[in-house]
Amino acid sequence: MSHKSNSLKQLALQKFKKNFWGVFSFYFIVFVGLVSVFAYVFAPDNSQYANQMHLAIHSQRPGFTVTMLTLPSQLEIEQSAFDKLFFGKKNTDTEIPISEYAINNNTLTYTEYAADGLKGVEKTVKLNSFPNKNIAHYIKEKTFLFGTDKYGRDLLSRVLVGARISFFIGFVAVFISLIIGVFMGSVAGYFGGKVDAVIMWIINVTWSIPTLLLVIAITLALGKGFWQVFIAVGLTMWVEVARVVRGQIISTKEMQYVTAARALGFNDFRIITKHILPNIMAPVIVISAANFAAAILIESGLSFLGIGAQPPMASWGAMIKDHYNYIILGKPYLAIIPGLCIMSLVMAFMLIGNALRDALDVKN
User: Fold this and answer.
1) Which domains does the chain possess?
2) What pLDDT does residue 362 have?
3) What is its main location (predicted)?
4) Which listed site, 1, 37, 207, 326, has its alpha carbon 20 to 30 Å from 43?
5) Are 101 and 112 in contact (CB under 8 A)?
6) Can you tell me the distance from the alpha carbon of 130 to that of 69, in angstroms, rounded to the nearest whole number?
7) pLDDT digits (tens, 9 = 90+) for 103-135
8) Whole-number Å distance between alpha carbons of 84 and 72
9) How far apart are CA 295 and CA 123, in angstroms?
């Protein structure tokens, strides 16, 4: 039996490897996962939430380059390397876009950057205020590959950091939905009768409420925030899992190996967890991939409505909300870039779900 099980797994793996789009989607999802975990390593702006604002250079085109003067802060904040790596640097320095500068004696004179051909304000600062006497260390050319948003923040950094919310909400929501859905579906399908009737009533009531409306209600009850959205989305996605598990268990519980397990005196918990569930996980895996995509879309919709991840936290949905009016103002990339990110990640999960369905289909 074990040899046969291993052979089926190897056969499914071979079929999956032959699906180009499935394999491509898998590697793309792994890539996005690595980017989301180590976002602050890849992001040009590694401050917390990539929230370094420069209002003088707001809504600039991709590839925009400007000279940036950094004025060091006297405030020192202790921060561990782990905290910087995964949660960003608590930056207290002030970055100022400048158009020109000059050094005379012990004074740095600079002109702040001004768009549309205007001349910026001219200011001076003493060189003594810089800990490092090498002034070139504080004046550098900075290029914004994706341009800047309406607050002058680096759009590329915001996109990279925003991937974290969209990616991890899939994991958390699917994890919650699997725990609740597998439990409810297993109990309903295995025991049947009144237990099944009660659980099916709960499933049908939950199913009848529009998903986005239910998520909004749960979010408002739990409060606006990062984890509240994760929990709210997870609590609305268990219904599909429960229905699939229930149907699979109803068709499986009368199989010979289940009858043999009962004859050997195994309890119901062991029969469900050790004998039935391992044999019905194929459709559950496929629907989990679809739930990943659905969770990303729901979170983006909530952020667009303003009840998802709250500012200054970066979120692809919130980025579209902030810039959708720029589509008709001549700078559509501010909304299109995060929109393409959402589309590509959702499509990758849908493609890998289709590939898994084909690979796990024993009839082909």
Assistant:
1) 2-34+156-360 (1.10.3720.10), 57-147 (no CATH)
2) 58
3) membrane
4) 326
5) no
6) 11
7) 888 888 899 998 877 888 888 888 887 777 678
8) 18
9) 49
